[in-house]
Design goal:
Layout lengths: L1 E10 L5 H13 L4 E5 L2 E3 L28 E3 L4 H9 L3 E6 L17 H19 L5 E3 L7 H10 L2 E4 L12 H9 L4 E4 L2 E5 L11 H14 L2 E7 L4 E2 L2 E2 L1 H16 L3 E3 L5 H4 L3
Helix pairs in contact: 3-4
Bound molecules: zinc ion.
The site of zinc ion (ZN) has 5 residues, from strand 1.
């Protein structure tokens, strides 16, 4: 059996229920397990450092009328959105940073100041808990980037750290043996000191990528791994108000074909502990 985890990133105060239904309605209807990485306290002045946007662009998932305002918007103040998310069967919620705002050229959790890291994790976890009545157990760093100081703080609080790739220069030295074993075995996770650190094959359902090339990358990855995290951003499926049909269709077809295949099982992050070899 192989396992698939859908990880949607960037749900925040501004996310529209209608947009989630348009992209993931087919998943909700079938109760397919899905995981949402939630930004607990989005800062409307957060900029994207992606090369796909002109320099100094604001994050595309912040509405134009709010972009640039130095205000933060806690997700628990959008009651309708939180209630909608909690009503979904088989949806699980992960903590995705705090404000998603980068500072002086560093992504939010690439910073080195331990007090700031602690404060962000405390406040983010509190908003998350207030919203979902549960402590977050999985952490997703904005842009999948982290400093070693953040790694230690994350390790103290979370059971799972879901990453793009495990950067051997940023993980603690004590993780290196397991890191090299992972490489040797062509595996995609490390379990050590009660923390599961898990890699994903990049965001392949992206409007910035060639769908056919992405599809081949995903085929290869899924074939050679027991666990695959499929990362998507709900906002990437839209150009203005219109759904990007090519991207949406590719995503929907892929998810449904895996779902119909009895060799695959969709799961939530909390189920990983039962599956991995420790
Ligand atoms: Zn993000």
């Amino acid at each position: 059996m192989k396992y698939i985890l859908i990880r949607d990133d960037d749900v925040n105060y501004f996310t529209k229920i209608d947009d989630l239904n348009r992209v993931y309605g087919f998943i909700f209807e079938r109760n397919i397990p899905i995981n949402f990485a939630i930004i607990p306290n989005i800062d409307a002045s957060a900029k994207t450092i992606s090369n796909n946007y002109p320099k100094n662009s604001y994050e595309p998932f912040i509405p134009k009328e709010f972009q640039g305002k130095e205000n933060q918007f806690p997700i628990d103040e959008n009651h309708k959105l939180v209630e909608f998310l909690k009503s979904l069967k088989n949806a699980e919620f992960l903590l995705h940073g705090f404000t998603h705002k980068s500072e002086v050229g560093r992504f939010e959790f690439e910073i080195e100041d331990e007090n700031t890291i602690e404060e962000k994790l405390n406040k983010g976890s509190n908003i998350f808990e207030h919203s979902f009545e549960k402590k977050p157990e999985t952490f997703v760093a904005p842009q999948d980037k982290f400093s070693q100081k953040s790694f230690f703080a994350i390790q103290k609080r979370f059971e799972i750290f879901s990453l793009g790739w495990i950067d051997k220069t940023r993980i603690p030295k004590s993780f290196l043996i397991k890191y090299y074993l992972m490489k040797l075995r062509n595996n995609n996770y490390i379990f050590k000191d009660n923390l599961l650190v898990l890699q994903h094959p990049g965001c392949q359902f992206s409007r910035f990528k060639d769908i056919n090339k992405s599809s081949l990358i995903l085929d290869k990855y899924i074939n050679s791994h027991k666990i695959t995290v499929i990362v998507v951003h709900n906002w990437e499926f839209f150009s203005g108000k219109n759904l990007n049909q090519e991207l949406y269709t590719a995503f929907k077809n892929r998810i449904l074909s895996l779902w119909r295949n009895e060799n695959f099982k969709f799961i939530n992050f909390s189920e990983l502990n039962k599956i991995i070899c420790k």
